[in-house]
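Hey, resending since the last one bounced:
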Amino acid sequence: MSAAAERRDRPARATVAGVDSSDLQVAVVGAGFGGIGMGAALRRVGITRFAIYEKADDVGGVWRDNTYPDCHCDVPSHVYSFSFAPYRDRRIRYPGQREILDYLRRVVNDHALAPHLRLATAVSAAAYLEDQGRWELITATGQRVLADVVVFAVGQLHRPNTLDLPGRSDFAGAVFHTADWDHNQDLIGREVAVIGTGSSAAQILPTLAATARRVRVFQRTPHWVLPKPSTDFGPVTQTVLRVPGGHRLYRRVLTVAADAVLAPIMRRGWSARPAEWIARHHLRHQIPDPALRAVLTPDYPIGGKRIIFDSDYYPALNRTNVELVTAALTGFSRDGLVTADGTHHRADVVIYATGFRAPEFLVPVTVRGRGGILLHEQWRHGATALLGMAVPNFPNAFLIAGPNSFNPAGSNPAMKEHQIEAIIKILRWRDEIVAPAIEVKPSAMESYRVWLERAIATTVWPGAVASWYKHPSGAVTNPWPASRRRFARMTRQLPARAFEPVRATSATSATPSPEAQRWSA
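The structure tokens again:
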């Protein structure tokens, strides 16, 4: 796609005619799947006085930021899409990064969200004003925004994690993270070091192995790898998708299968042993060298770290110009990396494929609730939120893709849609009881916390293996410990009694405005 065509396809950076950005019903922070889905839902219920704040100059979240070679999603797009804007391509099962980004741009345009976008506008702080029952947001440029409700939709995978290795300033070559790919670097014929062996490393390695002179992959912990189906649909599936209702049926089958087959793996359920057998068979089939196979075999239960779905990673490791290094890294040298066994590994370019600081929810935004309570202080031992979307002491504040709402066994756009539907329902109830603000009851949060801890205890995650699912304290803060169906039921049946009204201290703010009543329309 040409640069001109890409600019044409981007949502317009317009200011909203008739919408005062300094006085809103809803301020949405983030323009990835969560923020776009929230915006579409607001328009469906007739709410137009809202804005979506995005720190970057385009929508898309991780699908805007990650532009590394062969970047793609390992979840079929028939379920990695909104229910109100379903994916309907009959040819491609797993679209790449560019196609997913274009899909999100189309949703923005199809649902008239462009006028609500505030691109290149980072929110740096948010504080609840108790005398008004409203939120004050401060942008990085100092703009002040007032909103009845704030929805944080910044996601979990947006803060790159890099290792703080000694000697970095001495290294003469280029260093970058997969989420900040340096397209100015020509890697043909060069010595490349890849730190990490997660999903992004598995995706970039085949391309690097085919272009670089030598690639060294530094592994801390091996991952369980399951074979990935073909990127393109076969003729039988294409025929099924041509039948009226075929796309809807295929989406339904994938959704049910994820809950029935993948979700039990995380709890050592019926499918864990078959999945582990398939992963071991996949490894034996693709890695003939027993020594290499041994260091690629995990010593923890499958699902303890996010499972990789890939059929090209192992063959790339077999190439003569690719070396897997398992010794621990100790630092940089002027022309490479040094490991704990004293070996020097030459490198012209070092690529961090080390994932994200996922447990650091909402960082770097400073969020203060009632009584000046600092959210990050409340979360210092690990973030928690009712169904990943609401926290006591923070009235009229909601999260999308908050703590323990990442689905490691299915569709995360679906999880976000369940949260969005619940947020709309909760705000309608707020207006029915004529309250300026509502918040989660501590008793409801405590009951949920007890259930969550028991559910997590039945999974493979509390073990010793390190992963982005965990806070440094050891608390499991990111994944959902049950099925998507269970999450849908719990968000749908979330009782009003889990929340309580919070009265503003100013009498003039005690009643919602007439426009606010449109939530109940």
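The two ends are 43 Å apart (CA to CA).

Sorry for the duplicate.
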